[in-house]
């Protein structure tokens, strides 16, 4: 059981939780994630470890409310406990001194970019951070990333803040003016695909962190299967980061939609319970 130190909504659909998990806090590295279960009846969901405090034994997690489990997570209060946290899982990011590293975060993908950007900087890279979201209200961690890197570019799709551009637009500008040695991109699949297509043309190595649907997080269920360089890989044990030029993004997108109708049904039932209606034969 893991004590919740704090849990707050920092945006209408975006939560930040600090929770106790001393082992994970001591050993986690940039790029790794955990699988958590709220209670004994809950499903396991993967969340990236955005930060940790080994002294206090706590992890910082950012979660977007998209379905039943993340909605339940938002309802948790400081002082309550989560049933289990497994981790640290997945391979850490391959951090080295590449030269110039561009770290790109889109939407909730900004959270996992923070530890990677910090680690890239600590390894001696010139670090340029690019963050993007649909609109200003969905941007997170701007101050943290601004103080981490050598340069920061903020983009919004609607132009409500920073540059009115997609992150690929900002990346194109950077590539046009200086040599880029590594790109790390985390965010929605179409964004990671677009970044990978852009960097492929320039021969720039690119890491992406895949958000496959996960069930057990241990390589046993096959739920997170992806095709990388034509071979079957499991995101939970072989990833979550892969070379963006080798990922079959079309297959990943199709697999992410696999349980859409069940997830919608689950949310509908959850909402009915909140409203005190117990219909649908459940
Ligand atoms: C390695 C890894 C790290 C992740 N880190 C984070 C993180 O730090 N913060 C965060 O908010 N989310 C993260 N995710 C995604 C997160 O696990 C899902 O949003 C969560 O499982 C949804 O659970 P739910 O029951 O609330 O929603 P569900 O009812 O399961 O799904 C609701 C909607 O979200 C979509 N969805 C479900 N799972 C995913 C997924 N894995 N990726 C994209 N869309 C999905 C569904 O298609 C559906 O439309 C990560 C995923 C992976 C694989
Ligand atoms: S989540 Fe089951 S194999 Fe990866």
Termini separation comes to: 29 Å
CATH topology term of the largest domain? Rossmann fold
CA gyration radius, whole angstroms:
19 Å
Bound molecule kinds, no repeats: flavin-adenine dinucleotide, FE2/S2 (inorganic) cluster
Overall pLDDT confidence: 89
Task: Give the class from helix and strand content and strand pairing.
Answer: alpha/beta
Which percent band covers the strand fraction? 25-35%
Mind explaining what this structure looks like?
- With 282 residues, the chain is of the alpha/beta class.
- It folds into two domains: 2-89, Elongation Factor Tu (Ef-tu), domain 3 (Beta Barrel); 100-257, Rossmann fold (3-Layer(aba) Sandwich).
- The protein has nine helices and 17 strands.
- The strands form four sheets. It has a seven-stranded mixed β-sheet with strand order 12-11-10-9-13-14-17, with helices on both faces. A five-stranded antiparallel β-sheet has the order 5-6-2-1-7.
- A hairpin with a 7-residue loop joins strand 3 and strand 4.
- Bound molecules: flavin-adenine dinucleotide and FE2/S2 (inorganic) cluster.
- Flavin-adenine dinucleotide (FAD) is lined by residues 33, 45-48, 62-64, 66-70, 108, 111-112, 211-214, 235, 240, 256, 260, 263, 266.
- FE2/S2 (inorganic) cluster binds next to loops.
